Amino acid sequence: MFRPVADDFFRAIDAIWNDDEKKNEADSKAERIWNIFSEQQDVIEFLEDDDESSTTTASTTVAAIATAKTYPNIESIEIILKSMSICRGESGIERKASLIVGKLLPKYGLTPNPSVYSPYIQIVAKARNRGAARKAETILRKAVDEFPPPLSSSGQTTIGVEVFNTVVTAYAKARGETDGPQRAQDLIVFMDGLESSSCAPNAKTFTSLVDAYAQTNDWDGVGQAQSILNNLLEQYLHEGHLEPSVATWTIVIAAWTRLSKKGRNGASKRAGDLLRRMESLSSLGKISVKPDAITYVTCFNAYAYSKAEEDVAEAERLLEEMNEMYLDGDDTMKPSVRSIKVLLNAWIKLGAIDKAENVLKQYEDMLIDDTNNDGMTVEDWKEIYRSILMGCTLQNNPKRATSYLKLMIDNQDMEPDTLCYNRIIESYIRLGQDDCAKGSQEIFEILESRRKAGAVSPDERVFTSFIKALTKGKVSGLYKKAELILKRMHSLSEGDGGSKVCRPTIFTYNAVLNACAESADIDDTPLQEAFQTSLRVFTKLREDIAWDPDHITFGNLIRCADLLPSSSQQESKDKFITHTFKMCCESGHVNNYFVRDFCGIASKDLLTSLIGYSSDDDVELDLEDATTLLEQLPTSWQRQRIDREKPPPVRTERPINGSSGGRSSGGRGRSNGGRSSGGRPSNSSTSNSRASNSSTSNSRSR
């Protein structure tokens, strides 16, 4: 029976390794070589089992000899490790290599040599897991001790500089290795001390050291990286040795760019100064390298991601330089779509919409160039138009934003999302009363037409914003229109086919109640009808299992008392104010905002009877006075605010019977407690992220 021996397996492994037709398929080669090695292990295991089952000394000896002949030779091990060291995709490579070197070599009576250590060290160093760099360095130093340069006693060559460089690079890429740069530097000192040309530090070694310091991403570390670059440069300029490569320069520029993105002042200038120095030395012929496209783009990003206007202007100048070089024939310098988008967004964030539009106009031909698929995709155009639209709203220019909204609608596959509509309406609200309602009405009508076309699904936010816009514009019939929008939202959200994102939230109810309260100041408003509307809306809110009234609800509701004429309905007005005040107290939602609104609406007698506050003059408190008065009121009335200001309790056990101790509102940032059996708000705390949660907040969203 044919039994393969070590040489048979070696020839199979060697044939795969030297297959030139597969030289670009490193992962595939490594896998095939490992499979043959695994088959060799299976044969060895089979023979070892046969050896153990032998009954005579002679048969045992024969079996042992047969097994030993199957053991892999050192040449096979060298090829296996080399194939693994250039493998990229497969996981577990380091584990397999450690198994071979740590367990199988001793088992087969083999001793590691430099041709085994070199790929093994590289495999460990490239593992990138925690501690990999230190493990690789430990193995490296052990290998150097066993095979010191320049030649070992057996005549084998020692570990080369490329292996040292791999370990230095491992420290540069290591995560969580706080002293990685220093250890990399110490390793270079060790290399230099070996006094061997085969492992003397080269330019790549120092590039990896520069990267190690650059990757610290702090000012001192990046400064040290630049100092090493400067030292290398000075040495090269004086001695002509170890010239920094383009990569070395770019690594430091990229490090300053990362700091610039973090908002570190001066980082962008450091990046720019390096680029200009590189350009100057190159143009004078003092260095053989010059900035490439990556270097320029990296420096461009340092300026573009800065928040300073002068830096963004410098980014634009750099992009123009690249464009000039491209037009002069250097295709590598063609400004990319991504860079143009970065510059656009930089100007937009600064509110410089005109400059953003100028950039768009300047590079329009380049953006629509579909040669070699370098042009903008539909999604790219949509993102740019959307960014400019948003920028216009931030600058309170809703009309300009509307033009981009219509442009997106007119272009296929650029449908604006609901947030675009909402931001334009919010921009009209910030502008004030003039054109607020009219402009918002136009946007809402466009939204409705797109909804009916099935192009967009409006959410609660845009409906609520529209109510606020109508309120800001003091439109005729405000209370009625606000309630109709509320009903429309319920209609769109109900049923199996309803849009749940349209469902009214506490913010919607509060906006409608505020619309009712503000209707008191609008001429020709039927006040009694507006008041009844406020009661219906409040009742609807209390029936909604998803939401509970909050301090804004009660503040808006109590302001609706102004819809009741004091002269003819003073008693009804006082009863309404009293009832609303007590509901707010019982639910624990009294805060300085509510106190301010309450004091502004209640009569002197009510103030005295309900909170013990007396004054000879009409009471009009500002927020600071209301905060002072709040401190004199019972804390039980304020428990929702007090609970919000407490640190969250640590839960030590699960609720009994699956009770959650409250319920999630399903709204944005608001968690409400449950309702009592009587339908009134429970005593659970309520937090509201869109409304003001703090009694000392400076602004209030009604």
TrEMBL record:
UniProt key word Repeat: yes
Domain of life: Eukaryota
InterPro entries membership: PPR/CCM1_RNA-binding, TPR-like_helical_dom_sf
Region feature Disordered, mapped onto this chain: 637-702
Biased composition (Low complexity): 678-702
Biased composition (Basic and acidic residues): 640-654
Keyword terms, alphabetized: Repeat
Gly residues bias (residue ranges): 659-677
Keyword check for NAD: no
PANTHER family cross-referenced by the UniProt entry: PENTATRICOPEPTIDE REPEAT-CONTAINING PROTEIN, TETRATRICOPEPTIDE REPEAT (TPR)-LIKE SUPERFAMILY PROTEIN-RELATED
Protein's name in the database: Pentacotripeptide-repeat region of PRORP domain-containing protein
